[in-house]
Amino acid sequence: MARVISTSHTSLVAGLMPREGVARLVAFFMLALAGSIVLWISAKTHVPFFPVPMTLQTLAILVIAGTYGFRLGLAAIGLYMLEGMFGLPVFSATPERGIGMAYMMGPTAGYLVGFIVATGLVGWFAERGAAQSPLKLFAVMLLGAATILGLGFAYLSNFIGAEAAFNAGVLPFLLGDLVKVAIAALMVPAVAKLIKR
To answer: N or C: which terminus of the chain carries fewer CB neighbours within 10 A?
Structure first.
């Protein structure tokens, strides 16, 4: 089975996939499925932190986007969203706060949209060399994390007002997201070095 490693306009993981044919499609789907499962697990994993406990979901999104790239990363997050849409309890607060479209259209919808946008953003830059540099990747991932919080804040403001949305939906997560961005920005280039070897 032919394999190719390329760092030019391709993701780290896609560079190891079969080059063409059914085998590539199967590998693409299996990687997308694996990514969606990682996102599911990360949403349910709570880590004690200050000022609030945090999930590992943002970390997982950034690492997946950085290693999977644009298309495969969006396929993984898209499959994850489809799983949630069809009622699987894949999100952090499901099934406690509802499932399916009822949950997805609720106050956290902006964050879910932010997940998709951030995945595409980080994945696009990762394919174009950012995945090789911790500093470049940190800047791109910081923008991705800010996008998640920004879209989440904008939508949540419609429900509880801007001040309350910032205090409840942004401020408590700033430090945790900064830590997750730093970890992700170090992890992805380390994976790139392993792949090159």
So the answer is: C
Q: Where are the domains of the chain?
A: 29-196
113-162: pLDDT as tens digits:
999 999 999 999 999 988 888 999 999 999 999 999 999 999 999 999 99
pTM of the model: 0.90
Concatenated DSSP letters of the chain: --B----SSS-TTGGGSBSSHHHHHHHHHHHHHHHHHHHHHHHH-EE--SSS-EESHHHHHHHHHHHHHHHHHHHHHHHHHHHHHTT---STTTTTT--HHHHHTSTTHHHHHHHHHHHHHHHHHHHTTGGG-HHHHHHHHHHHHHHHHHHHHHHHHHHH-HHHHHHHHTGGGHHHHHHHHHHHHHHHHHHHHHHH-
